[in-house]
Amino acid sequence: MNRFILLIFVVIIGFSLLTEGWKKGRRHRKRKVTKFMHVSDVHFDLFYNQSISKDTSCRSTEGFKMADHEAPYGRIGCDSPEWLLESTLAAMKEKGKDAEFILLTGNLSAHDMTDDQGSPNVLKAIQTVSSKAHEVFHFFYPLCCFSSLDGKMVVLVPNAMYWNNNWQTYPLWDEIAERQLQWLAEQLALAKNKGKRVLIMSHIPPGGDPFNYNYFWIPKYAERYAILVAGKYHDVIAGQFYAHTHKDDFRLQILNTEDEKTSTKSFVLQTASVSPIYSNNPAFKVFTMRTDIQALVDYDQHYLDLEIATEFSNPVWKFDYTFSKRYPSKNKLINANRIDELSQKLISQTDAQYWNGYFMGTTANYFPSHYDRFGLYCIVRYVLEDDFHRCYDNFKVHN
Ligand SMILES: *[C@@H]1O[C@H](CO)[C@@H](O)[C@H](O)[C@H]1NC(C)=O
Ligand SMILES: *[C@@H]1O[C@H](CO)[C@@H](O)[C@H](O)[C@H]1NC(C)=O
């Protein structure tokens, strides 16, 4: 049974998908810029019911509560309905037309579906997400690692579940965690010898959880990983892509905190989830990368404003922001120095742009605290109280 579950998690994490653009990219090897997408945490819920309250996970299980309004596109506080999965794929196809590949960093199944009997609902969710992605992008190769991008870059997909303390992987984790670290070290050495640069992707990130300040990985593995990526091989790493927190986010990795200015560094980019369960709008990113210097240049975040979509029954995926415009810098690449600068500017006393942008970006523009958007709209607009109430009662989405 355990081996079976292990296999599932390898599959969950090990998706990097090649798209039609990849085929085209191979035919145009001379081009210097390539695009790819990062999407994550679909958490597709086979049992989503648009009429049921988030208090009972939008499922008609025993003792369920009805919601005050229907939410066919997805509901803040619940995992993703099939509509949201399909809509995300369609939006990716449109916004990432030229993308050569997609990084899909897990977690495909809804919450509370894992069990000791082989978790058939988890498997079914994985199967549905994969086959729908296949329908949209045609090319869909779940892989553990691949080398394309003019042969100068490699994508490595370790399974971070083994570096994270998790009951599902428990009986084997130490052995596999160890082997996997050795594999990673070998791959990085190989890339360095061949003059290649590396993208790393997995699900649960190294570093801390902004929600409760807990650190995810087992300390000894976090340390050894950091020594590899931010130490010996920092110049080999072009980017690390993780998710799991459901937030658009950044992580710097400084090795020598005694002397931060001269320390070697690396960085992680985390992407917001498709699932709105932890109070964020669904989002994904389209990256631009220079293949001549094997470096990340920029990205665009796109998102679906769920409350507006629900209120007006008009679901439209919108452009959110471009990294280089939101976080302007003399540095024209997304690299460790750039993320270092960004993190320092989050606590700038003179410039609020970085903080404001970061705060809005993390949830793809869903305000996480208690507030009522349509109430604000009505109060801005109407000077007399009765007019306010008339306006307010007109909207069905209230918080
Ligand atoms: C959603 O739940 C309601 C209340 O239990 C039920 O009447 C309805 O049939 C369910 N819808 C679907 C699609 O299952
Ligand atoms: C995916 O989400 C489910 C539900 O929360 C959880 O049980 C499982 O551990 C997650 N898997 C990963 C790889 O995070």
Automatic annotation (TrEMBL):
Coiled coil: none annotated. InterPro entries: Metallo-depent_PP-like. Residues 1-21 form the signal peptide. Keywords: Glycoprotein, Hydrolase, Signal. SUPFAM superfamilies: Metallo-dependent phosphatases. This is Sphingomyelin phosphodiesterase. It comes from Porites lobata. The lineage of its organism: Eukaryota, Metazoa, Cnidaria, Anthozoa, Hexacorallia.
